[in-house]
């Protein structure tokens, strides 16, 4: 029996592996999820909820198996989380890329699977020194990726935001870019992450500045809003807000007041309910007109306010005291949260600060008094459950029951609070649990809460605070670093300059989805999941029709190679990348020139040092016979016969045929044995014949006709439908091991899966897009697989089916 080499990957991960070796041995890496997601900015979106609900590979059942994927040394520490963009076209192929900004002004693009540096740039610190002293300027900002995925934006220590092509690092330099965000970079630090919001037909980028620790120098907090289409800017100053310019050190564009920094982890937080952007300010003067220290402010998405001030504001009644005692409200930003069921207030946010309090605010009327300039008016004020000031960003998550949760970490620990309702639907925060392990900004992915603590990276059950997993990495020099989880990978950096990635080994996953962006990407991903480099052969067939690939699946599996799908006139990029990785010793094309053109056949020669041959007949039945003649010797113990007019039965039969040396898989019509097949059967003289499929697929008359080609038995394997037939075929496989599943309603995903399953001596069972058929469930119960490989994206087989399949894994 061949050992099954299953490494769960997606099409973009396949591409990434062309330029760098896996960080661990085969079977230890599980790069990307089926439906690839971007983590394009701090908190995974403009509202910075800190949630990735699309994560499927890392969850409560698998998080305990997280293992190191790679560790790389950055050019200095990054005091902020990275961002990630999947499927970026680079000179080395299509890759998932990870971007991080270091304190010294570097932006580094890394291969998200291997950690290899793809490109990097640095702006600063150069001659920039904090407040004109001897300490170099630095930033704690995070980059942001625009919605197209084509550009990434990063702050440089020259006081500007720079725009780079994600795949090449080429910088845009024109009349707008790079964009100025401060004229005083030695006094005004960019502490927060960049934020991007798309609303009202515009996409805006927000950059915020404050001062350096110590509150020295001539600095004022401000938010710079940049329209990414036009490059136009609007500046909102938190002091002297009537002036909408970047302040210079001298009049007429100077402000006599200082401080009121914007320095929380995100620059702004978009509230989709009110279509405002919210942010908070640090210590500074407040007059409710032009100066807005220790306040929560709301602006229009284009960065404008009203009457020389914000659109709305909230300021605590004890603002003066907080200012005097250095208890900034602006140490954390307002976090938009989902209201609890039955809430009388539709738009909510939580705001904490250095005063160890949490306030619940109505974002549609921040002070409850209509418009900006008032003090007080919060819906609720409670002490931080674990005590202590908050300098991190809360996260908001809604669990499966609809309960809205808020998670807050700080130097005293971490807490989980529920949003509930009281009399008249009044919303309120209620503490559910606390943990004493201090840490930074939390996130939730796949139903697991992650945060970096002073003892290392931790994963908790978000509903109870129970620890599910931990590692000692990630604690060195911890400040404002925080993790992200995307596409089956956990990333985090620390103060040592190390950036680490963790993933769940394939062997630890109950159900791993293998998929690409389309049928060709899925074909490449399936190949990469099962076959290593330098395979003896790769079979190539049309991805637009099924017959040729059906005939070749068993032959490919027995020979130790994949079936890869192409277009009639082109080799899709994902297949090109996979062929480069495979470096097959030879290539066999299945089907005639209408299926795969001679031009494609010629191009395939560039991917092998051996031959490229074509196996084809006059039609699908002729091709089936030719494949058999080329790969099956006479007197095989069995010949398998399936319908050439429909695909489901043949998909399941492919792995079964692959288990028997020399056993062909031959196509017939529902009512006849085509002449080419009859001739081939006469040559083979098989010891027995097995028909796969019911009488609607292959009649009893055909079964009778087949008896003339063997001296042994002619039997039928069939179920009540295509799903039942796949279950009946799977009954021939032993218990345990790996099982493959794919859609039984469409053929492309399963074409490549049949060869991979056959190579691993695993059955291929068919399912619907929305449920596991009872016959298939029964067979999976018997098999008790240790792992299920689910082939195809969520359009083909839903996440609900993936969840259901996990219940059959032993």
Automatic annotation (TrEMBL):
Gene3D superfamilies: 3.40.50.12090, Quinoprotein alcohol dehydrogenase-like superfamily, YVTN repeat-like/Quinoprotein amine dehydrogenase. Residues 1-23 form the signal peptide. GO terms for cellular component: outer membrane-bounded periplasmic space. Residues 425-504 form the Pyrrolo-quinoline quinone repeat domain. Keywords: Signal. This is Putative cell wall-binding protein. It comes from Leifsonia shinshuensis.
């Amino acid at each position: 029996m061949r050992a099954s080499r299953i490494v769960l990957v997606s099409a973009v991960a396949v591409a990434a592996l062309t330029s760098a070796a896996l960080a661990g041995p085969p079977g230890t890496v599980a790069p990307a999820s089926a439906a690839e997601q971007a983590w394009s900015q701090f908190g995974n979106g403009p509202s910075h909820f800190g949630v990735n609900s699309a994560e499927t590979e890392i969850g409560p059942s698998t998080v305990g198996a997280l293992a190191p994927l790679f560790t790389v040394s950055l050019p200095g520490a990054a005091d902020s989380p990275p961002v990630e963009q999947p499927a970026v076209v680079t000179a080395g192929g299509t890759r998932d890329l990870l971007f991080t900004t270091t304190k010294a002004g570097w932006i580094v693009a890394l291969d998200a699977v291997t950690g290899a540096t793809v490109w990097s740039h640095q702006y600063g610190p150069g001659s920039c020194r904090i407040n004109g002293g001897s300490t170099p300027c630095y930033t704690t900002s995070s980059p942001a990726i625009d919605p197209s995925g084509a550009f990434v934006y990063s702050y440089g220590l020259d006081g500007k935001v720079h725009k780079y092509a994600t795949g090449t690092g080429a910088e845009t330099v024109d009349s707008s870019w790079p964009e100025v965000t401060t004229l005083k970079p030695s006094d005004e630090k960019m502490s927060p992450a960049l934020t991007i919001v798309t609303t009202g037909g515009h996409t805006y980028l927000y950059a915020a500045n404050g001062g350096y620790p110590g509150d020295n120098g001539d600095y004022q907090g401000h938010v710079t809003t940049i329209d990414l289409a036009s490059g136009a800017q609007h500046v909102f100053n938190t002091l002297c807000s009537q002036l909408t310019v970047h302040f210079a050190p001298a009049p007429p564009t100077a402000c006599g007041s200082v401080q009121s920094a914007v320095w929380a982890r995100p620059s702004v937080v978009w509230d989709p309910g009110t279509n405002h952007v919210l942010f908070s300010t640090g210590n500074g003067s407040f007059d409710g007109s032009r100066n807005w220290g220790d306040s929560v402010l709301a602006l229009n998405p284009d960065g404008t306010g009203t009457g020389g001030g914000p659109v709305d504001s909230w300021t605590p009644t004890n603002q003066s005291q907080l200012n005097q005692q250095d208890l900034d409200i602006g140490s954390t930003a307002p976090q938009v949260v989902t209201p609890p069921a039955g809430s009388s207030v539709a738009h909510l946010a939580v705001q904490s600060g250095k005063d160890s309090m949490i306030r619940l605010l109505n974002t549609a009327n921040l002070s409850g008094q209509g418009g900006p300039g008032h003090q007080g008016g919060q819906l609720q004020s409670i002490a931080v459950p674990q005590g202590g000031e908050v300098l991190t960003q809360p996260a908001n998550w809604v669990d499966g029951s609809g309960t809205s949760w808020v998670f807050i970490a700080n130097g005293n620990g971490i807490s989980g609070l529920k949003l509930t309702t009281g009399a008249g639907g009044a919303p309120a925060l209620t503490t559910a649990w606390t943990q004493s392990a201090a840490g930074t900004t939390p996130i939730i992915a796949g139903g697991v809460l992650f945060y970096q603590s002073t003892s290392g990276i931790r994963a908790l059950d978000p509903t109870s605070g129970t620890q599910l997993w931990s590692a000692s990495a990630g604690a060195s020099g911890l400040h404002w670093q925080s993790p992200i989880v995307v596409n089956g990978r956990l990333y985090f950096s620390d103060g040592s300059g190390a950036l680490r990635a963790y993933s769940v080994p394939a062997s630890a996953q109950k159900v791993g989805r293998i998929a690409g962006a389309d049928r060709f990407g899925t074909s490449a991903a399936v190949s990469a999941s099962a076959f290593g480099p330098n395979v003896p052969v790769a079979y190539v067939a049309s991805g637009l029709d099924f017959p040729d690939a059906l005939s070749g699946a068993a032959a490919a599996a027995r020979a130790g190679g994949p079936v890869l799908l192409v277009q009639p006139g082109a080799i899709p990029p994902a297949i090109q990348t996979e062929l480069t990785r495979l470096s097959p010793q030879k290539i066999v094309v299945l089907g005639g020139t209408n299926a795969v053109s001679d031009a494609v056949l010629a191009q395939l020669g560039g991917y092998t040092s051996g031959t490229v041959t074509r196996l084809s007949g006059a039609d699908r039945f002729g091709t089936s016979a030719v494949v058999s003649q080329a790969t099956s010797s006479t007197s095989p113990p069995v010949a398998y016969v399936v319908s050439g007019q429909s695909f489901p039965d043949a998909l399941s039969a492919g792995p079964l045929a692959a288990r028997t040396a020399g056993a062909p898989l031959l196509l017939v019509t529902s009512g006849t044995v085509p002449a080419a097949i009859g001739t081939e059967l006469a040559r083979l003289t098989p010891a027995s014949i097995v028909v796969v499929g019911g009488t609607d697929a292959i009649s009893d008359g055909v079964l009778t006709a087949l008896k003339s080609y063997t001296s042994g038995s002619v039997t039928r394997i069939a179920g009540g439908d295509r799903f039942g037939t796949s279950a009946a075929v799977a009954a021939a496989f032993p218990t345990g091991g790996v099982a493959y599943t794919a859609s039984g309603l469409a053929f492309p995903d399963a074409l490549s899966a049949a060869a991979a399953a056959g190579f691993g001596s695993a059955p291929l069972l068919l399912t619907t897009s929305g449920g596991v058929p009872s016959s298939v469930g029964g067979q999976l119960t018997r098999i008790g697989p240790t792992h299920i490989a689910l082939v195809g994206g969520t359009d083909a087989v839903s996440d609900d089916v993936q969840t259901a399949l996990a219940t059959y894994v032993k």
